[in-house]
Amino acid sequence: MMKRLKSLRLLRNKVVLITGGSSGIGEQLALEAARRGAIVVVCSRHQDKLEEVAHKCLILSGRPSFAYQLDVTDPDQIDQVLDKVRHEVGEIDVLVNAAGLGDMVPVANQSRRSMDTMVRVNLLATMYLSRCVAKQMMNQGYGAIINVGSLAGKLPTPNSAAYSATKAGVIQFDNILRMEVADYGVQVLTVNPGPVATHFFAQADPDGSYLSHIPSWMIIKSDSLAKTVWDNVGYKTREINVPGYTTAIGWIYQVMPGIGDWAIKKFFDFQQNKDLL
């Protein structure tokens, strides 16, 4: 089984399905997979953008590429798209759950609808897609499931409680899924980036109050992240934490959470909104 898993180190002619593939991290993962010769399948709600990404993948890989419109919050749509992929493309070798969204506001100001949507997109969809594809991969004896978590799932920051909770859920879900599928030759890789240079913050942080506290040198380039991810597929890598030093910071926070809370609040110059007092 390990030999078959190792075959994923070369993505040539492997079927790679990516949610959130029309933009951001998902798009860059799709383009990089295509450069490595994969048969790329991109999914999202935005059909026009999907078609553009799929066309770019076709040019880069010289292999067929596919675009399927998908609302990941709808389990019936997920079932239908997975069925189409298996019949029209083939069995999935690599699944990437990159669909995600955020809303960076204090908990007391956050709407129930916003919290519900983040849980459905970031966590429930990731769990359901992973569950469906894991069954197929266990039967075929190899595969890789890549779930995009976040540094926010390891380190708390003001104004990101609901978002961070969904990403912490992804990390713990992967920790258990990894144990359950390892004996079947299936890799589960959790990707935990810090802030990435995408359009994510245009929606999550429209006034820039969150991003303004992040030094420019901490911002990650999405194309560089994509290369790092694919360089670790087909190995025993459990997690990718980017930037790398955040692994040590996360460990320190677990050991000294009180000092960690003080330092994080200082770093973000955080004060409770006076309107709430």
Automatic annotation (TrEMBL):
SUPFAM superfamilies (UniProt xref): NAD(P)-binding Rossmann-fold domains
Keywords: Oxidoreductase
All copies of domain Ketoreductase, residue ranges: 14-199
One Pfam match: adh_short
Record InterPro entries: KR_dom (IPR057326), NAD(P)-bd_dom_sf (IPR036291), SDR_fam (IPR002347)
Family: Belongs to the short-chain dehydrogenases/reductases (SDR) family.
UniProt xrefs under PANTHER family: DEHYDROGENASE/REDUCTASE SDR FAMILY MEMBER 7B, DEHYDROGENASE_REDUCTASE SDR FAMILY MEMBER 7B
Protein name according to UniProt: SDR family NAD(P)-dependent oxidoreductase
Organism annotation: Limosilactobacillus coleohominis
